[in-house]
Amino acid sequence: MTELQRTLVLLKPDAVRRGLVGAILARYEAKGLSIVAMGLRDVDGEMADRHYADHVEKPWYPPLRDYFTSGPLVALVLEGPEAVDVVRLMNGVTNSVVAAPGTIRGDYSLSNRENLVHASDSVESAAREVALWFPSLA
Asked: Which of 5, 118, 130, 134 is catalytic?
């Protein structure tokens, strides 16, 4: 029996700008993951800092913050067996230039920073991130 999990996914501003939200959501749904919650959000610097709290002091964070707050994004919670690992595999590696074909990043992105999607990297991170973005689900 596999563990049913929830994970946070963010379809970043480039995904929204490029009109890829439907295509990306369709992949998750086709895999058998369920959408538990979803919303279009305008993100300010404070929310970006809370989401990326572990990275705020890194030298590469300011451009990431600028990108993350550059336009609306879609925040969602997906649920399914082993959802954390499944979604990360579907997304592909962070650097889209080397992401495998068949992954979301490998098929749709050519950037390390503007890489379309974020997904929780562990069950613990998923719990923290879901609580941050969807407090009613915590």
From this structure: 118
